[in-house]
Write a structure and sequence with these properties.
Blueprint (H helix, E strand, L loop, with lengths): L7 H11 L2 E3 L11 E3 L1 H20 L15 E5 L7 H6 L2 H4 L1 E6 L6 E3 L28 E4 L3 E3 L9 E3 L5 H6 L1 H7 L6 E10 L14 E11 L4 H18 L7 E5 L12 E6 L10 E10 L1 H8 L2 E4 L2 E4 L18 E3 L4 E3 L2 E8 H12 E7 L5 E7 L10 E5 L6 H13 L4 E3 L5 H11 L3 E5 L3 H4 L1 E6 L5 E5 L3 H9 L1
Parallel strand pairs: 3-9, 21-22, 21-23
Antiparallel strand pairs: 1-2, 4-5, 4-6, 7-8, 9-10, 10-18, 11-12, 12-13, 13-18, 14-15, 16-17, 19-20, 23-24, 24-25
Helix pairs in contact: 2-9
Bound molecules: glycyl-adenosine-5'-phosphate.
Glycyl-adenosine-5'-phosphate binds next to strand 10, strand 13, strand 18 and helix 9.
Length: 487
């Protein structure tokens, strides 16, 4: 098992060095909270999203009951827009409630999240917490809505105001009726969506952990109210198992149930799946995914208008005239259940994951350092990304040992044939040791080398990234050899 030598500095440096992740607009000095995914990063993130989509949607079997599930269920996908009708955010509660509390320092003009003052740094030197220098003058905490505002059309006036979505979920709720009436799904069923979300975070930090533009992988699961607690338990466990199946060690993960004071405005139960990210002190965990029991809050809000909690009840919030403060669509979003001949508003269980946080967790988990002998048997330190083969950006690299004796031609032929199945990489530059180490840092599970023996017996060496062991494999068997190991 690997020792924990992973630090954020090492992860950020590797991401830059190998072309996983760059700061957005870097040539202009960068822009806080925005990150670009380079050639390897885009493949890694796509593989994570694809693994999620396959697990949720394309791999889902509607004819059987998955282990631990209360029953079989339907599952479909959706891709809704980033900008939606502004009433969506009024009825959903985001316009009134989606804010962070911040404090400003009147002296140095820095802004801090109110809940992070005790872990933030004042920009003055020597390094201290905000408020600890004699010159510091902190304001009282104030509210800041973190939705990005924009304007639709040519006129910049309040009528044209719109927002970049802060979550993909609302596009799913507003399409509930469309999907119900066109897809032949029956409750219980889920709608999965992957897409960009935007939050004007006061203090984006910790690399891609908290950014202002990020991708979510959210699934809204619509179920009968009386079985919603069972579905909530099912999705919590299933989502933890997904991370473990792709390589996160269970001792680095925890499932933490929120207390009533910590829950979002819509939630009647939330559990965070948390990971021991290396930027946190030993023993602390950070949110990777939230699994929420949202009750009937969302569908009712979009029917009746923005809801507020009164005791145990959700009621429509009214203005001074007794009218709904933010009216809903007025459309009937309830469900008629043929089997029980009953009508109800389905409850929603939502596993909401971040593709960028998952990328960071898989990178941190995979990062390792060890020492391996070079061609002369001298131990050389190496950095290796022990990514799960399904997530590895490049699955196999193909090299000629030397650039002569027909080796490049044979290697290129192997590369071309493997490329029809997997993301393969060809490289003939530099010493073989350097080429191996470059692939180790990129997380490539296998390297194939064509050498002098290849022309004699039609075999090549296949080197395993994790053990560095090499095996001679007949060229004719390469595809089945890799298929067995890459899945
Ligand atoms: N629809 C529910 C919802 O959006 P959330 O806990 O606010 O819930 C879900 O977000 C997930 O989205 C988080 O667990 C995290 O993985 C990701 N996420 C949220 N804010 C983020 C940010 N500023 N940067 C990166 N990922 C973020």
């Amino acid at each position: 098992m690997k020792d924990d030598q992973t630090t954020m500095d090492k992860i950020v440096a590797l991401c830059k060095r190998r072309g996983f992740i760059f700061q957005s607009s870097e040539i202009y000095g960068g822009i806080g909270g925005f990150w670009d995914y380079g050639p390897l990063g885009v493949e890694l993130k796509r593989n994570i999203k694809e693994a999620w989509w396959r697990d949720m949607v394309t791999g889902h079997d509607i004819t059987s009951v998955p282990p631990g599930a209360p029953s079989s269920f339907d599952m479909v996908g959706l891709d809704s827009t980033i900008i939606m009708h502004p009433h969506v955010w009024k009825a959903s509660g985001h316009l009134d409630l989606f804010y962070d509390m911040f404090v400003d320092c009147k002296t140095c003009k820095a802004r801090f999240r109110a809940d992070q003052v005790s872990s933030s740094e004042c920009p003055r030197k020597p390094s201290r917490r905000p408020g600890e220098h004699t010159e510091c003058e902190l304001t009282e905490p104030r509210e800041f809505n973190t939705m990005f505002k924009t304007y639709v059309g040519a006129l910049i006036d309040p009528e044209a105001e719109a927002y970049l979505r802060p979550e993909t979920a609302q596009g799913t709720f507003t399409n509930f009726k469309n999907i119900l009436s066109t897809s032949r799904v029956k409750v219980p069923f889920g709608i999965a969506q992957i897409g960009k979300s935007f939050r004007n975070e006061i203090t984006p930090r910790n690399f891609i952990f908290r950014s202002r533009e990020f991708e979510q992988m959210e699934m809204e699961f619509f179920c009968p109210p009386d079985s919603s607690q069972d579905w909530y338990a099912y999705w919590r466990d299933r989502r933890v198992a997904w991370y473990v199946s792709l390589g996160l060690r269970s001792e680095k993960l925890q499932l933490r149930e929120h207390g009533p004071d910590e829950r979002a405005h819509y939630s009647c139960g939330t559990a965070d799946i948390e990971y021991a990210f290396p930027f946190l002190p030993e023993g602390e965990f950070g949110e990777l995914e939230g699994v929420s029991h949202r009750g009937d809050f969302d569908l009712r809000s979009h029917m009746e208008g923005k809801l507020v909690r009164e005791g145990d009840e959700l009621v429509v919030e009214t203005n001074e005239h007794g009218q709904p403060k933010y009216p809903g669509s007025g459309k009937d979003l309830s469900y008629f259940d043929d089997s029980t001949q009953s009508k109800y508003v389905p409850h929603v269980v939502e596993p909401a994951a971040g593709a960028d946080r998952a990328t960071l967790a898989f990178l941190c988990e995979a990062y390792d350092e060890d020492a391996i002998p070079d061609e002369k048997g001298v131990p050389q330190e190496r950095v290796v990304l022990r990514l799960h083969p399904r997530l590895a950006p490049v699955k196999v690299a193909v090299f000629p040992l030397v650039k002569k004796d027909g080796q490049p031609e044979t290697a290129a032929e192997i590369y071309r044939s493997l490329k029809t199945k997997w993301n393969a990489f060809y490289d003939e530059k530099g010493s073989i040791g350097k080429r191996y180490r470059r692939q180790d840092e990129s997380g490539t599970p296998f390297c194939i080398t064509v050498d002098h023996q290849t022309s004699e017996d039609e075999t090549v060496t296949v080197r395993d990234r994790d053990t560095t062991e090499q095996q001679r494999v007949p060229m004719a068997d390469l595809e089945s050899y890799l298929a067995e190991r890459l899945g």
